[in-house]
Fold UDP-N-acetylglucosamine 1-carboxyvinyltransferase.
Amino acid sequence: MSTFEIIGGKSLKGELTPQGAKNEALQILCATLLTEEKVTIHNIPNILDVNKLIELLSELGVSVCQESKNTYSFEAKNINLDYLNSPEFASKGSSLRGSIMIIGPLLARFGKGYIPRPGGDKIGRRRLDTHFLGFQKLGAKFNFNPGENFYRVEASELKGCYMLLDEASVTGTANIIMAAVMAKGTTTLYNAACEPYIQQLCRMLISMGAKISGIGSNLLSIEGVKSLSGCEHRVLPDMIEIGSFIGLAVMTKSEITIKDVAYHELGMIPDAFKRMGVKMELRGDDIYIPKQENYQIETFIDGSILTVADAPWPGLTPDLLSVFLVLATQAKGSVLIHQKMFESRLFFTDKLIDMGAQIILCDPHRATVIGLNQEQGLRPTTMVSPDIRAGVALLIAALSADGKSIIHNIDQIDRGYENIDLRLNAIGANIKRISN
Ligand SMILES: CC(=O)N[C@H]1[C@@H](OP(=O)(O)OP(=O)(O)OC[C@H]2O[C@@H](n3ccc(=O)[nH]c3=O)[C@H](O)[C@@H]2O)O[C@H](CO)[C@@H](O)[C@@H]1O
Ligand SMILES: C=C(OP(=O)(O)O)C(=O)O
C-alpha cells in the first residue's frame, strides 16, 4: 500500500488535461469481446482499474496491442473460455467492479458468461440484480453459488423482449445492451441508465453495426443483428476528474485551466459548482477557473439551505458528492450533501472534522456542512483513503491545508486518477509518493 506525503497550503497555477473517462473505458473495453475483428480505442486512461481489465481480457485470449500511450487495439479472435474456470480469473475478476461487464458480451457471443462477485469501492451494498434479471428476460439461465461466490449465465439463444429495468443501473444497462445487440429480434429497455458512458457505448456499438435508437434517453430500442465488426472509438474526457479539478482549484485558491473538457457532455456538473459559488468561464472547450479568495454557496430561491444530491443521469453523479462536500468546508454558507445512492460513502467526513471542518453527519446518507469562509483553514493530518472519490476529496483537503499531511492506501486514488501526483506537481503542488 503506497502513501502520499503532501505539503499543502500552496496555490497552484497552470493547465490540466483530463484523462479519458474510467467508467466509459471499462464498458468500451468489455465491448471489444463482441467481435473477432480489430477494435482500436483512443484516450484510454492509464489507471489501475483499466489496466487490470486489459490484463484480464488478454488472459482471456484477446490479443492486445498498445499502439501509443493511450491508444490500444484489441482482437478477440481466440477466446479461451476455459480461463473462466481458472483460479486466476476468480482472483482478477473480483478485483474490480468493471469486470462484471464482460458477462453481457460473452453471453451474446459464446452463450455463456461467468464472473466472480466483483470488487470496486466499498461504499455500501452494491447489488447486481438488474444485470441478471435482464439476462434472464433475454432467455438466459442464471445460477449463483454463494459458496464459491460465482455468478453464471448460460443461453443457447437470446431473444429480444421488452424490459423495465429494476433500477437505472449504469453497469447493468451497459451489460444488458451488450447482451441484446446480437439477440434475435428487438429489445426495448425502459428505465435504462443514460450517462454519457452509456451513450458512448451505444455510439461505439452502432459503429460496429448494431442497431440502437433512443440514445441519451431512458428508453432504448435495440434491434438484434447477426454479428458485429471492428471499429475505432475515442473515450470522452473523465467528467469526474474534471469535477475533481474544479474542486481542487477553488479549495487551493488556484488559477487553473482544464483543457478540452467536452463541455456539452458535462450535464449539470458545471451548474452545480456554480451554485456552490464557484466562478468559471468556458473558453472554447476549456474551463478557466480564476483564483478565488472566497466563494458563497447559494440558497434555494425561498432562502432555505441548498441541497446537493445525486440522482441517475441527467441528475448529478454520485461520484462527485465527496468533492462537493470538501469544497463546502471552506465556502461561505451552508449546504446539505445528500448521497442517496450509496450508504457508506460519507464516513470519510470524520477525517475532515479532524482537520477542523464543521460538518454534522446526520446519518449515513446526509451531511450538513457549515462553511468556514476561508477564515480558518483546514489543519494537516494523517489519513487513510477509504474509496476512490473520498481519496481524492482528502487529497484536495490536504493540498489546501497548510503543512504536511499523509494519505495512506492511495491505491484507491490510483484506481481512477492517472499519475495524479505528477500532474498536480507540474502546476505547483508538492506531493511525494512513498511506495511501501
Ligand atoms: C464502473 C462504474 O461504472 N461504476 C459506476 C457505476 O456503478 P454501478 O453500475 O455499479 O452502479 P449502479 O448504477 O448499479 O448503482 C449504484 C447504486 O445506486 C443505487 N441506485 C441506482 C440507480 C437508481 O435508479 N437508484 C439507486 O438507488 C443502486 O442500488 C446502487 O446502490 O454507476 C454508479 C452510479 O452512478 C457510479 O457511482 C460508479 O462509479
Ligand atoms: C464508485 C466508483 O467506482 P467503482 O464502481 O469502479 O467502484 C467511482 O468511480 O466513483
Remarks:
- The CA atoms of residues 134 and 176 lie 6 Å apart.
